[in-house]
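Progress report, Aim 2. The chain analyzed during this reporting quarter is listed below.
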Amino acid sequence: MLEPRPTGLMQGYQGEAGGVAAIDKPQYRTGDVAVVDRDGYLTYVGRADDVFKSSDYRISPFELESVLIEHPAVAEAAVVPSPDPIRLAVPKAFLVLTSGHAPDRQTALSIFQHCRAALAPFKRVRRLEFADLPKTISGKIRRVALRRAEAANQRGGKRASLEFWEDDFSENELGGRT
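Predicted structure tokens for the chain:
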């Protein structure tokens, strides 16, 4: 809850008689997830509708996407849950590559290695796909479209031609860390 109440937030609804019916709840739900540290500073975690569970851990796509775009081959990234029979869901990244990088096995291996070095095991991206990202007219990534497409593909047992799973690589190739 934000205190004091934001100035631009409406005070209530106009009633039929012209009066204003006040909003009785003091909370304003933005859909954003943040944490407050001991000093009162807010740290943005992500959107509540984007956070998902994998093996009972809450995963924020924002954190994974931040790690992914640190890789020199990755221009843009979007992470969504991919249905998994053991973990309920695993993080899957849809990636747009920078020029000069091929959407191949070697690039995928390099990205998986990068994720292993930068993320805790429960947060790691387990699947990735090289693809164009669907966007809104204002240029925001349409994660809802990616979530729906991924769920449909997994239900149908389909795997995209430019999709790689962490399981496609040996522990030796990945760096030996589980």
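The chain has two domains: 12-46, 48-174. The mean pLDDT is 84. These observations will guide the mutagenesis work planned for the next reporting period.
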